[in-house]
Amino acid sequence: MAIDPRGADLKRYLGEDPGGPVVMLNLLRFAEGGRATYQQYADALNATFLPRYGGEVLFAGEGSTALVAEDGQSWDAVVLVRYPSREAFSRMVADPEYQQVTHLRTEALSEAVLQATSGWTPA
Asked: Which chain positions lie within coiled-coil regions (predicted)?
């Protein structure tokens, strides 16, 4: 299962940039014992990298009852993180200091979805 974005993924992500802020949807399934490891990653993200790149956690919560989902589509946690731009997120994941802690996320998860979202303009 894919856990971390690859170079080709980031290139496509930047190439599809509509401009403006981006909210990254994180759907997380933890590996056995992974919650504590993920918390170490989240602590580093919140203390150093989100402030450095203008990001903010909009929501972080436990997964609960899946009302509409196929078997295996429920998630342990959901996190929404807003960045001022796709470029800011891309710079963060390329940061050598960030790369020293990203292994914690990789080790903590058995499966993940990381999807860029952009807001709708009200009609």
From this structure: none
pLDDT, tens digit (0-9, with 9 covering 90-100), for 92-110: 999 999 999 999 999 999 9
Q: In the structure encoding, which two tokens stand for residue 99, read together?
A: 């790369």
Judged on CB neighbours under 10 Å (0-12, 13-18, 19+), 53 is buried
Which backbone phi and psi does 120 adopt, to 5 degrees?
-90, 145
End-to-end CA distance of the chain: 38
CA distances from 55 to 5, 19, 72, 83, 102 (A): 18, 16, 30, 4, 16
Q: Are 24 and 83 in contact (CB under 8 A)?
A: yes
Calculate Rg over the CA atoms of the chain.
15
Give the domains, in start order, of the chain with CATH numbers: 20-65+75-117 (3.30.70.100)
pLDDT, one tens digit per residue, over 21-75 is: 999 999 999 999 999 999 999 999 999 999 999 999 999 999 988 888 888 788 9
